[in-house]
Structure formats: structure tokens, C-alpha cells
Design brief:
Shape: globular
Number of domains: 2
CATH architecture of the largest domain: Orthogonal Bundle
Strand content: under 5%
Distance between the termini: 19 Å
Helix content: 55-70%
Order of helices and strands: HHHHHHH
CATH superfamily of the largest domain: lambda repressor-like DNA-binding domains
Largest sheet: none
Length: 107
């Protein structure tokens, strides 16, 4: 089963790395996203889950792909897990199958 805290920490760390690579301050990126700097800090520290909309906005602002910040299926589920990412998104995260398929294209 997926550890949501671990997943949030992974995504947050990758966002922070990519933000620094792009030479953005937290404040500059937060301003572009129309969120507070503390909200961005909480995402980067894994304290808050990043919504898909904000994740896509971050990737657009930093000119990166979602796959640059999202972990592999093996990282999320472990190599022994047989559930596909689409199945997980539909069954566990309650995302529509159509939206899950769109997300899968970016993994």
C-alpha cells in the first residue's frame, strides 16, 4: 500500500530541486502560482499534498514535465504491487478513469 506522507515528501523534494535549478525563490514561484509562500514551503516539505492543478501549474511555471517530479510506480507501490497506477488513481484516489488515463501519459 502507498505511504501518502512518503509520496508527498518525494514530490515536494523534487519540486524544490527543480525550483532551485530554475533559480526561482519560493516567493517568486508562489507569486506566479497565486499561492502563499508558506503554502509552497509546506508542499516542498511534504506537509501538504499538492493538488493536481497546482502540480500542473508548478510544472508549467518551471518549464518541466510532471514526470520530473512524480515518482515511478515502483517507488509508490513497491515492485511487488500489481495494481496499475490507473487502477490506484481510480480506486484509492477516487479520480475518474478518463482523468487517470490522462495522468498516466505523464508518468
Amino acid at each position: 500500500m502507498m505511504d501518502v506522507t512518503r509520496l508527498n515528501q518525494h514530490i515536494g523534494k523534487k519540486i524544490e530541486e527543480r525550483r532551485k535549478d530554475a533559480m526561482y525563490s519560493q516567493q517568486k514561484l508562489a507569486d506566479e502560482l497565486s499561492i502563499s509562500r508558506s503554502s509552497l514551503a509546506n508542499i516542498e516539505n511534504g506537509r501538504h499534498q499538492c493538488s493536481l492543478i497546482v502540480l500542473f501549474q508548478i510544472c508549467k511555471a518551471l518549464n518541466i514535465e510532471t514526470g520530473d517530479v512524480l515518482p515511478t510506480k515502483e517507488y509508490v507501490f513497491g515492485s511487488h504491487e500489481s495494481m496499475s497506477i490507473v487502477d490506484h488513481l481510480v480506486k484509492v484516489e477516487k479520480i475518474s478513469k478518463a482523468d487517470a488515463k490522462k495522468i498516466e501519459k505523464y508518468l
